[in-house]
Every structure is written in C-alpha cells, then in structure tokens.
Amino acid sequence: MIRRTRLLTTPLLLTASLLASAGALAANACTLLASQDAAALAGAPLPENFKAETAPTAQNGRDHTTVCGWFPKGYDLRSAEAPPEAGVQLTVHALGSAADAKSFHTNAAEMTREMAKSGPLAAKISTPAGIGENAILDIKTLGGNTQVATLKFVKGANALQIQAWTKGPGAGDVATKAAKQVAGKL
Under a CB-based contact definition with an 8 Å cutoff, are residues 145 and 86 in contact? Predict the structure, then answer.
C-alpha cells in the first residue's frame, strides 16, 4: 500500500512543482491587496471595481499581467473625466524569471525618469527604501489638488506598479505603504 501511495502522489507533486516553476501559480493583483487593505490605506471606502488580465503569450514576452483597482463607489476608471478623490490600483507583471522582471522594470523606470524631467508629465521622483530592488516613486499633482503617486518595483519574477490617488498630499505615502504590504506577500 505504501508503494501505491508513493506512485500516486509523486506525479502530483511533480506536476505541482512544474506548474509553479512555469508561472502557472503567478502572483495576482486582486489577491495581493484586498479591498479592505486598499480602503484602510486610502482612508476611504474603496470597493474593488476595476479588474483586467492579460494572459502570457509569445507576443507579449510571456507577461501575465493582472490589474486590480479600488475606487469610490460609482467611479469608473474607463470612462472618468477626472481623477478619483481616492483610489489604489495594483498592476502585476508576472514574468518568466527574475531577470525578465528586472529588465522590464529597468525599462519602465528609465521611461518614468525621462518623462518626469519636464513637460505636462513632470514629476517629483524618489527612490523609497525597503520595498524592492530599484524602486521608483513618481508623484504628480493633477487638476487642482488631486495627487497621484506611481510606485514601480521588482520582487522576484514580478515587476509591480502601485498607483494611489488622494485629494491633497499623501498619495506617495499610500503607494509606499501598499507596496510594502504587497512586497511582504511575495
């Protein structure tokens, strides 16, 4: 009986191991940050109301992208004419390897730095510590006093981006706290 059990369980363990190494168990934005966590960070009720997913393909470099956004009830990110008063959005690019994630992040960070230098997308750039390799935080003020912070970082085989919106200052703090929570789960 013991031999049968071993024969039956060994293929299951091998299959689970292969699936994990192939990225089938990739990080997912909506499971890495819960609605109640996003609301606590933003200091406002934020039901999950935006989701998107792109399956990994040869054309997209095997990038399994998941996006989950938490915004005030009634706010529709796809059709909004103005930024939200509060919000948190997490984008996870689950890539095939840590090297792929680092390369993806490096390119995105370079583009962020270039765009932040001048023009309508000029921003304050900083590098918060304790989040992940080469983290970059970009903070902008939009139309009056709405602030949006975009924090990009790498953790393992994942390139991540957190965006936070606040009325007035504070978006950078929200994004940084959210990033630390997410990084702790990876």
Answer: no
Annotate 123-136 with b (16+ C-beta within 10 A) or e (fewer): beeeebeebbeebb
Q: Give residue for tokens 């090297």.
A: 99
* Residue 66 or residue 26, greater confidence: 66
Report residue 5's pLDDT band, with 50, 70 and 90 as the boundaries.
very low
Structural contact between residues 131 and 180, judged by C-beta atoms closer than 8 angstroms: yes
Q: Does domain 26-185 have CATH number 3.40.1000.70?
A: yes
Which DSSP state fits 63?
-
Residue 57 identity: T
Q: Provide the percentage of residues in the chain whose pLDDT is more than 90.
A: 65
Closest by alpha carbon to 178, among 158, 156, 157, 150?
150
Full DSSP string of 105-174? HHHHHHHHHHHHTSGGG--EEE--SSSSEEEEEEEEEETTTEEEEEEEEEETTEEEEEEEEEESS-HHHH
Domain boundaries, the chain: 26-185
Q: If you average pLDDT over residues 119-140, what whole number do you get?
A: 85
- In this structure, the number of other CB atoms found within 10 A of the CB of residue 31 comes to 11
CA 69/CA 33 separation, integer angstroms: 10
CB 53, CB 94: distance < 8 Å: no
